[in-house]
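Worked example 2:
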Amino acid sequence: MKLNFFIMINLILFSNMVFAQNYQSDTFETKNHGQLTITFIKHASLMINFDNYIIQIDPTSMFADYSTFPKADLILITHEHADHLDAKAIGALTKTNTMLVMNEYSYKILGTGKGRIMKNGDKLEVNSKISIEAVPAYNITKGHEDFHPRHRDNGYVLTIDGLRIYISGDTEDIPEMKNLKDIDIAFLPVNQPYSMTVAQAINAAKMISPKVLYPYHFGKTDVKQIQEGLKNSGIEVRLREMQ
């Protein structure tokens, strides 16, 4: 019995090591000197690990086998499109006390009666060190408005031990971005017609003024142009494999 338990534990550790080797990650120090690691999965799918508290953002099975990931303490869904909302991935990541947060349409589509709805402007204290604010995410270019209508989808601002992370979801450079303050890390999508052009992403970054910017959900867009466009802006643009 002890031998079987030992083998099982080692298999779990090995699977986590394999997982860790397959994806890029960056580590940041929080305001109170904790460590936070962001793992870049693909597209709009991210994992955040703070003090072994695991947050998954828009996990979808088309980009990863989530049965190889650690179970999540918190799952955030920005909106209901299939490249952001996937019941299989959510099921693979869910444990007894996993908190699932999403917009209203995702809640209805998931249809399990589980999870918590957040609307634009809602705030949630997860615990003493983590809070969430749901912020607007929508299209403004004429003819594109139906892709992501106003008031439907969420972006999220996560404050984790004082470190503020903006996950934009699918959006363009909307005026509400001017209201985002003290953002340390920002994720902006660059994938017209569904989200931003390079020029819009540069404009959005200047409105938000994060310390670090990650273009994500960018498909075949040449995001190196964002680095060029934000030279001498004081914003560090980091490029990761988030096509």
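The two ends are 45 Å apart (CA to CA). The first strand starts at residue 24 and ends at 29.
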